[in-house]
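does this look right to u?? PBG version
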Amino acid sequence: MSTVTKPRAEHPRAEGLAPRLVYNGGMLDLLTHGDFARHRRLRRSEGLRRLVAETRLSAADFVYPLFVTHGQGVRDEIPSMPGQYRISLDQVGREADDLRTLGVPAVLLFGLPAVKDDEGSEAYADGGIVQDAVRAFKQAAPELVVITDVCLCEYTSHGHCGVIADGEVDNDRSIELIARTALSHARAGADVVAPSDMMDGRVAAVRETLDDAGYVATPIMAYSAKYASAFYGPFREAAESTPQFGDRRGYQMDPPNAREALREIADDIDEGADIVMVKPALSYLDVLSQARREFDLPLAAYNVSGEYAMVKAAGAAGWVDEQRVTLEILTSIKRAGADIIITYHAKEAARWLRDAR
Ligand code: PBG
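got this back:
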């Protein structure tokens, strides 16, 4: 007598290993074999494992972050981020070619301004470094999705993500400048703008400013649940954006809080975000997976600089298999629920995925 199609609750695996009577479509049946699951059956070959893989990583998932700087012929490796460079605009064609060849669909641009001041004025200058980089990328590779990080911290002399009043970051004055920055990026041709400042109301301000200027079709990727994280260390070295006094804990989220992240995300969606983000990725995979269950917008995760630096350091020391660790990390971010993975590993991971086929 066959023992197929047993209701789940009465399946012998739920009960233990001893032979027992099981319900079998109307009759009782003595189960004398197959009384535990053979999970290993589907792990026996690469082909089977690929066939049943629940998560498939692809170059199409990746966004590649890039630091652009003034000057000529600059290709300056960032010491704490081996393999990542600050590049001048004459290098844009080469980057665009790499990304096209590897099938990475998008870049996220960060700028190093010529001068920093109290109000971060190069952030919203039409001839600013990011604005020029957007034009250069769109010219070199019109199909490449150009996303711009919208923030003031790289551009302000004090290194905060907004303007300072009475020793504190002034929310409402800051969001005016954030919105101006987003508009100048859209005007330069950015495909998506991504506010990362964590001021309240900035998504609404950006949306309204874009709409009023006719950029109704420019999407917003909001850094919605962005934590005050020590994992941004290498980025701040790369972008020269370390706060000169205090820290970012008055505006970025506190690491113990996950429910609050869902409120931040819900508010950004209400304010008009088209894509929402959790950042960093690895210490916040729980937040990512809760956000995935709660919201149906495209969800991005930022695999940040410190996460990259740790893998590179351990790989260089020979302590881990760098390629396998990298792909496992990226897979975990996707499995937790990310549709979009922003990662410095984008190019090498795309190459490894291609070569594995
Ligand atoms: C700008 C910004 C930061 C990062 C992305 N956008 C730095 C910060 O908030 O201090 C961090 C990215 C990374 O660590 O890779 N506000």
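The pocket of PBG is lined by residues 149, 151, 153, 161, 196, 232, 235-236, 241, 248, 304-305 (CB under 6 Å). idk if thats expected tbh
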